[in-house]
Amino acid sequence: MFSFQVKKQLGEARFSVLTTPHGSIPGPFFQFVATQAAIRGMVFTEDLQKLGVDILLANTYHLHLRPGEDIVAAAGGLHEFMQWERPITTDSGGYQVFSLGTQVTVDPGGVTFRSPRSGDLVRFTPESTMQMQAKLGADIIMPLDVCTPYGASLPEVARAVEQTTEWAKRCQLEHERLQSGRPFPQVVYGIVQGGVYPDLREKSAASLRELNFFGYSIGGELRDQDDYMVEEGVLMTTPHLPADKPRYLMGSGAPEDIVRAVRAGIDQFDCVLPVRNARHGKVYMDLNTTELIACLRDPARPVEPARLYTAHDMRKSIYARDFSVFSPANPATERAYSRAYVHHLLRAEPLSGVRLTVLHNIHFYVQLLQAIRQTIEAYGS
RNA sequence: CCGGCGGUGGCAGAGCGGCUGAUGCGCGGGUCUGUAAAACCCGUUUAGGUAGGUUCGACUCCUACCCGCCGGA
Known about the structure:
This protein is of the alpha/beta class. The protein contains 16 helices and 16 strands. It has helices spanning 45-51, 60-65, 69-74, 78-82, 94-99, 126-136, 154-179, 198-210, 230-235, 255-263, 273-279, 289-297, 305-308, 314-317, 339-348, 350-379; strands spanning 3-10, 13-20, 23-27, 29-33, 55-59, 88-91, 104-107, 110-114, 121-124, 140-141, 187-192, 215-218, 247-249, 268-271, 282-285, 310-313. An eight-stranded parallel beta barrel has the order 4-5-6-10-11-12-13-14, surrounded by five helices. Strands 1-2-3 form a three-stranded antiparallel beta sheet. α6 (126-136) packs across α7 and α11 runs antiparallel to α16. The protein is globular, with a radius of gyration of 20 Å. The structure holds one RNA strand.
């Protein structure tokens, strides 16, 4: 029921097809983040279908806190719960190990969170995340991992790699145990850690390969305010990943990140950026497909954000700039033609204004990924 | 015409006889990457309807006038 195939290759960039029990989707693909089973900003399943979204990512940690995996399971699983018939991925909660910082303690058995909402202690183990994810019923599920912050020391990252690998084994075992008799099978990915240290990335990848996961992710925080090591992190990892398996760069997804990573052989992405930025008033527009094609065909060409697209802050001067923000080609924004209407949405009904910008950015990303695929398919071999 | 209430920054809206205007919105700038984020950070004042009076000192108390809102003729 699951398969992955690389159809064409342009340099290291791959045009692929992933088949799941909930349909086949072309790659490289982008997973919009629906943390709590919904994309923030009043986006509905109907919108996503209209916009051509392929796959969504939800979060085990957040769904465990609310509404709880048992409730989702009782509703018939995530697909039913969300009224979404296409593929879904769930993250394990590993990222919260990093993002919740001081609220989390890691020990060899698992992680203990203090819920920012209630203050309650929540315990996750490799086994329990697999159980929860089995109940949630996404197509692609992730093992519990230790996500290291940018700037973590080598010993620290080495420890995270070791812990992640050991947990990956435990997740694998638990997953196999849980799969029998499921109506819809699931697949697990291995998450490569190792921060910015090539030796650790290699070691992490090598030991995960032995476990033979369906796909492989690149995890860990690879940037901070001043430094940017995403591309380096990808480049030092992909050579150690199997060529015939999906490669998933977790959490990175500015348009330029995507182009660079695709060029390095990544097939799968997720990122909160397009939706969060939209909610905060920043919209992406003017995708330069000519430049995009040039970047994909020439791996040595620098990927410059400013040449690839424009990011416009709606807060600053919605009236000063032209209205191409609201692409008439976008069915979800087709009503957004008149100045009066936009004024109405953004001032009088901020909820609706946010919805509009979120839809716009989703549309932009769908187009971006489509253009990437088309380019690889057209020029690749 | 009578009575009541009120006139504070672009708007809304507090407090106080002195220690230089809280807070919200707006506006300007910034951050955002497996969502503790429709969030957060920084900037945006030398105001007191007008004219007098009391006082060492008034936005704060008093008087008159102007304007607005509510009620009554």
